[in-house]
Amino acid sequence: MSQSPWQPISPPKPPRPAKAPLTRERIVDAAMRLIVEHGYDAVSMRKIAQELGTGPASLYAHVANKGELDQLLVDRAAQQMKLSDEPDPANWQEQVKDYMREMLRVMRANPGVARAAIGQVPLVEHAMLSTEKLLAILKAGRLPDQAAAWAADLLPLYVTAVSFEETVQNASNWTPADVERFVGEMRTFFADLPADRFPVTVALATALTAGAGGDERFEFGIQVITAGLASLAEPS
Amino acid sequence: MSQSPWQPISPPKPPRPAKAPLTRERIVDAAMRLIVEHGYDAVSMRKIAQELGTGPASLYAHVANKGELDQLLVDRAAQQMKLSDEPDPANWQEQVKDYMREMLRVMRANPGVARAAIGQVPLVEHAMLSTEKLLAILKAGRLPDQAAAWAADLLPLYVTAVSFEETVQNASNWTPADVERFVGEMRTFFADLPADRFPVTVALATALTAGAGGDERFEFGIQVITAGLASLAEPS
DNA sequence: GGCAGGGTTCGAACGGTGTTCGTTGACGAA
DNA sequence: TTCGTCAACGAACACCGTTCGAACCCTGCC
After folding, report:
1. Among all strands, which nt has the closest C1' to A13 (CA)?
2. Is the CB of A67 under 7 A from strand D?
3. How far is CA A127 from CA A75, A123, A131, A156, A176, in A?
């Protein structure tokens, strides 16, 4: 207050520190780093901004909103997919399975991406390129157009759902021992249900809790779906 | 009373209005009403409390947290599933499909429940009873124990994922006209892609955008999965 | 060289979220 | 009647995504 009246009050000009300019690229980088390290829910616009040494408002000059950022994350992940060689009509079923395995691998390598991807038609570049590849494999398998198109929706949906499930369950970094203990508890929970009302559940308690964390359950899923697709192929 | 003038100030005692007591039941009722009417994202502890004429803190005497409330909502929905008659070995594939149709029906009738259910092992009463039914059908279909168990995981996962997808896309009450316009835009978007890099996508533009809102795509999915399961049945 | 203008940066704020704290009040048991 | 218990609740905490407006920097034109 006691400043002299004639003195314009704005003396403390902290010079804007020279920083690397903000870009879409750097924002997605930071978001990806955080998501891999702390999971989807722990990633907010504020945290990303903090990671970049700025405020949340700065991000909105490069990204429309969090939804768009999610799409960019999906694209970044899709970019990591190693897509195979030419579609091979003799081998299409195995190629479909490989596609799904590769998709799951990438989603596991980028936890949280599944959460961003689910329920979104992938309209970004690399995601669409991988869909193109999948469609080519399906057509090589002599699937009718409509079946191929819907399958290109069904397959990623399954993989994404599986990955999403894993994301939710792996929330807050369980150790393998934790998982094993939890699965054990669940098995005895199933086994101890009243046998008159849950006869089959009790009988299958072991099977129901088998392969919870591993790949067997996923392999089962892609086997079922691929076999189901094969039944729709046109005769050669 | 008759306290001296320097009495501690706390005179205005508005009498607590006599209200119907809060119960778990009434909380779930209110949440269900709101979720059906406004969708999952519009439902918060505050809104639920407001609907009940109280504050959010009051809810926590009956419900541990929002996650538990989600589980209760899932159970409430599972309760609405009309589960069929006895498992019929001759008809098990159709029974599996009916089960999935019924599950989707209930999830559509309770938008947002899919969001609460995905990635959660259903350990609440009615959800488990429906799983028991499903397992019985699968065993009637002569599936090996392990296949039946994993299928009982795969099938609800698919239905939930489909419903979740619909939930996300139907966010903010699109009219059928809106949907049609959007689908049309997407079709031309696919059709106008560079044909050298997206040959199959361009060729299948129509098929890719067919049956977006209807049941055909879902019917395709359950057909594929059921056929795939059938291929795993043990010979009778 | 000076200057206008457009994009970038960013502090502050808005309206929302889930959850917790400490107090209040009603009611059943002693 | 008194006491103890526990549901109810107002207020607050620490967040969230997003917007606004002012300051700032760089570029291109006169």
Report:
1. D23
2. yes
3. 6, 7, 6, 11, 32
| B231 or A110, higher pLDDT | B231
pLDDT of residue A115: 80
The protein footprint on chain D, as nucleotides within 7 A of a CB, is 6-12, 15-21, 24-25
Q: How many CB atoms lie within 10 A of CB A124?
A: 18
Question: Tell me, which fold does domain A24-77 have in CATH?
Answer: Arc Repressor Mutant, subunit A (1.10.10)
More confident residue, B186 or B167: B186
- Determine the pLDDT at residue A173: 58
The domain spans of chain A are 24-77, 78-230
Q: What is the mean pLDDT of chain A?
A: 84
| Residues B154, A211: C-beta atoms closer than 8 Å | no
Q: Please say if the pLDDT value at position A8 is more than 70.
A: no
What is this model's ipTM? Answer: 0.81
Task: Provide the pLDDT for residue B18.
Answer: 44
Mutation site for A-interface testing, chosen from B166, B188, B224 by largest number of A Cβ within 10 Å: B224
Query: Residues B51, B52, B53, B56: what is their CA dihedral angle, to the nearest 10 degrees?
Result: -90
- Contact assessment for residue B165 and residue A164, using Cβ atoms and an 8 Å cutoff: no
Domain B24-63 adopts which CATH fold?
A: Arc Repressor Mutant, subunit A (1.10.10)
CA-based torsion, A213, A219, A220, A222: positive or negative: positive
pLDDT at B203 over 90: yes
CB B193 within 8 A of CB A189: no
Looking across all nucleic acid strands, the nucleotide with the smallest C1' to CA distance from residue B16 is C25
* Contact status of A200 with chain B (Cβ, < 8 Å): yes
Measuring alpha carbon to C1', the residue closest to nucleotide D19 is: A57
pLDDT value at residue A36: 82
